Amino acid sequence: MTPRRPPYPLSVAPMMDWTDRHYRAFMRGVTRRTLLYTEMVHVNAVLRGDRERVLGFSEFEKPLALQLGGDDPRKLAACARVAEDWGYSELNLNVGCPSPRVQRGNFGACLMAQPERVAACVAAMREATTLPVTVKHRIGIDDRDRFDDLAHFVEVVAQAAPARFTVHARKAWLSGLSPKENRTVPPLRYEEVYQLKRLHPELEIELNGGVRSLEAAAAHLGRVDAVMIGRAAYEDPYALARADALFYGAPHVPTRREVVEAFLPYASRQLERGVPLASLTRHLLGLFTGAPGARAWRRLLSEQAHQPGAGVEVLERALGALPDEVLDARPEVSAPQPAPTRAPATATQGFGQR
């Protein structure tokens, strides 16, 4: 069985408090082709909240998936129509978050015990939109963590024909572990995700959980269709600088200087709108992880971005404090390259104009 090559073989996971529009704008200087996600948005926030605040994004952030939390097919269908109107690339249903607050709302990981409801939600969303609808879930919850339980969940939901199953290769405990512990304590069980792909070669299966490098992602792509990277993409964002070259055959690998310079126009426009500089720069603290000058970079941003009236000159000063050989180093693309994937066109013109 040879995994298919979907439009987006690599994605960055939706992460609360992290994958906001400022992070996504920054990451587009690192990788133009990798699929990005919003933070999880509850259906009521979409239907009743300030949509510009909840859903707003810049065109250059695409390809961009909106992750929704909810269990009501009618509300999810309404959100799907709104998301298509706003121009999102995909929709994703969260069936993986185990937090107590999410459980009280009967969505997230607890829905793995209700595969028929998940199927109904997916079917309603697909009926309401032409956008791809995907499902992100765990390999199991509590004592429902045998492979047969996972296979049953996927087979029921597959009847609604989601475009992709993104499988976090850890089970979730709905009680007894915090959300943070649920990301680290249950062991990774990659083989069960591989087995799911072998059992259902017709389905698009994406692996999530514990992937820390592009090399690891490339290795998994020999067994599954796509790979999602989570916290590693936030803690060391420049680790994805080779993603477009490795997975899409794109010729350009940006330097760290180019990444920051690409972000400056967006940062300037956000500052004009009253966004504090620190809200923007907090996502850039890990840009020089593992490189000489990383500590100085973090210190300068941390100390100066919070000052009243701080503007993009803080970023420019921080760049000036680092040696040119670090700023302009361009990593070589030396890992084995999967077959280039043809992705839908992305908006690369006018970066930072919205």
TrEMBL record:
It comes from the Bacteria. This is tRNA-dihydrouridine(20/20a) synthase. It is an enzyme of class 1 (oxidoreductase). It comes from Truepera radiovictrix (strain DSM 17093 / CIP 108686 / LMG 22925 / RQ-24). The record marks N94, K180, R183, R295, R298 as: Interacts with tRNA. Its EC number is 1.3.1.91. Its cofactor is FMN. The active site is at C97. Belongs to the Dus family. DusA subfamily. Belongs to the dus family. CDD domains: DUS_like_FMN (cd02801). Residues 340-354 have a biased composition (Low complexity). Residues 329-354 are annotated as: Disordered. FMN binds at P14, M15, M16, Q67, K136, H168, N208, G209, G210, G230, R231. Residues 12-310 form the DUS-like FMN-binding domain. It holds the Pfam family Dus. GO terms for molecular function: flavin adenine dinucleotide binding; FMN binding; tRNA binding; tRNA-dihydrouridine20 synthase activity; tRNA-dihydrouridine20a synthase activity. It catalyses: 5,6-dihydrouridine(20) in tRNA + NAD(+) = uridine(20) in tRNA + NADH + H(+); 5,6-dihydrouridine(20a) in tRNA + NAD(+) = uridine(20a) in tRNA + NADH + H(+); 5,6-dihydrouridine(20a) in tRNA + NADP(+) = uridine(20a) in tRNA + NADPH + H(+); 5,6-dihydrouridine(20) in tRNA + NADP(+) = uridine(20) in tRNA + NADPH + H(+). Keywords: Flavoprotein, FMN, NADP, Nucleotide-binding, Oxidoreductase, RNA-binding, tRNA processing, tRNA-binding. Catalyzes the synthesis of 5,6-dihydrouridine (D), a modified base found in the D-loop of most tRNAs, via the reduction of the C5-C6 double bond in target uridines. Specifically modifies U20 and U20a in tRNAs. InterPro entries: Aldolase_TIM, DUS-like_FMN-bd, DUS_fam, DusA, tRNA_hU_synthase_CS.
